[in-house]
Design brief:
single chain, about 350 residues, alpha/beta, Aspartate Aminotransferase, domain 2, Aspartate Aminotransferase, domain 1, 7-stranded mixed beta sheet, 4-stranded antiparallel beta sheet, about 40% helix
């Protein structure tokens, strides 16, 4: 009953096998190998356009360097106040991008175009002491387990582009968002106005594989220098490429996301049937639930693993707790059934 995080899971067998297959022989270094070229072709297929692809080692690096590519001197990056870049990545996004993060409130972890426009109005472009608006960053899935639909992203991107800002998408759980919304990947990214995105592999079933994608390759001209400066240019790039190739071929990434989402839907049903309630209308593989403290303790004492979460003011009664349950490609029906039985005890 391990629902602590999709980061706790190992690697999918197909990805482990691909890494083993790539281990022998010789290949050109620093991204000149055939596997990296094949991954670039796969991303072009998935998004229906040429895409500039850059591998990095962590999601934090992917987000931070993507924002650096969109940055300006004295730059400002606007995001939801609960976004991962604003709450869980230390100061890396600000350090590597040189931009200050501006958190904006929003219901269920999502920004709105109206809230972005209202915030931008507080930062006129000329006074040097305010800084220069540079980019807006969205997370899909959000940190609250909710998802943006294509019109939501397009509306925010229109406001951003009208103000001269680039649009970044944190796609650590992008597959779960695509599977939840049920639209082509491009509809939640390039077609909706996203300029650059972080495409997560580690949470999706890889050992350690993250990518930064530019939907206009011309905008990526300076990115190789940003990546090298940060220490994320891998000499043996083929080992990240091998993982991505296995993940992307035949759309395994979407199959695994659909499985994780289905397990999460079963968890939601189990929790509500036992008398718990959902904190937010989660659609993907993260389930935030409010339980009586005694029930949550009983589950933990029975071996269930999950995270206790900070609740918003007024969300909980004195005998309740907010927890996060995360499913992944490795989650089984048996685990969910066992958790349901514990809750019903």
């Amino acid at each position: 009953m391990n629902f602590a995080s999709d980061n706790w899971a190992g690697a999918h067998p197909a990805i482990a096998a691909a890494l083993q297959d790539a281990a022998g022989g010789f290949e050109p270094a620093y991204g000149g190998d055939r596997l990296t070229k094949a991954v670039e072709a796969e991303f072009a297929r998935i998004f229906g356009r040429d895409v500039a692809v850059f591998f990095v080692g962590t999601g934090t690096a992917a987000n931070s360097l993507a924002l650096a590519a969109l940055g300006k001197p004295g730059g400002l990056v606007f995001c939801h106040e609960g976004a991962h870049i604003n709450t869980d990545e230390g100061s890396a996004p600000e350090y590597l991008s040189g931009c200050k993060l501006i958190g904006i409130p929003g219901v269920d972890g999502r920004l709105t175009a109206a809230a972005l426009a209202e915030t931008l109005a507080r930062f006129p472009p000329n006074p040097v002491r305010y800084g220069q608006p540079a980019a807006v960053s969205l997370s899909n899935l959000t940190e609250y387990g909710t998802a943006y639909a294509p019109p939501d992203i397009a509306a925010i991107a229109n406001v951003a582009h009208d103000a001269g800002l680039g649009v970044h998408l944190d796609g650590a759980r992008f597959g779960n968002a695509v599977a939840a919304i049920g639209v082509p990947p491009a509809a939640l990214s390039a077609a909706a106005g996203v300029d650059v995105m972080s495409f997560g592999g580690s949470k999706a079933g890889c050992f350690a594989a993250e990518a930064v994608l530019f939907f206009d390759p011309a905008r990526a001209a300076e990115f190789p220098f940003l990546r090298k400066r940060s220490g994320h240019l891998f000499s043996k790039s083929r080992f990240i490429a091998a993982q991505f190739l296995a993940l992307l071929e035949d759309d395994l990434w979407l199959d695994l996301a659909r499985h994780a989402n289905a397990m999460a839907a079963q968890l939601r049903e189990a929790v509500t049937a036992a008398g718990g309630r959902l904190a937010w209308p989660a659609m993907g593989n993260e389930v935030f639930v409010i339980l009586p403290q005694a029930m949550a303790k009983r589950a933990a004492d029975s071996g269930a693993r999950f995270g206790e979460w900070d609740a918003e003011p007024g969300m909980l009664s004195t005998d309740e707790v907010l927890i996060r349950l995360v499913t992944c490609f490795a989650t089984t029906d048996a685990e969910v059934d066992a958790f349901a039985r514990v809750l019903r005890t």
